[in-house]
Amino acid sequence: MDVLTALLLLVHLIPVSTAKNGVSSKSRKRIMPDPVTEPPVTDPVYEALLYCNIPSVAERSMEGHAPHHFKLVSVHVFIRHGDRYPLYVIPKTKRPEIDCTLVANRKPYHPKLEAFVSHMSKGSGASFESPLNSLPLYPNHPLCEMGELTQTGVVQHLQNGQLLRDIYLKKHKLLPNDWSADQLYLETTGKSRTLQSGLALLYGFLPDFDWKKIYFRHQPSALFCSGSCYCPVRNQYLEKEQRRQYLLRLKNSQLEKTYGEMAKIVDVPTKQLRAANPIDSMLCHLCHNVSFPCTRNGCVNMEHFKVIKTHQIEDERERREKKLYLGYSLLGAHPILNQTIGRMQRATEGRREELFALYSAHDVTLSPVLSALGLSEARFPRFAARLIFELWQDREKPNEHSVRILYNGVDVTFHTSFCQDHHKRSPKPMCPFENLVRFVKRDMFVALGGSSTNYYDACHREGF
Question: How far does the signal peptide extend, from start to end residue (predicted)?
Answer without folding.
Answer: 1-19
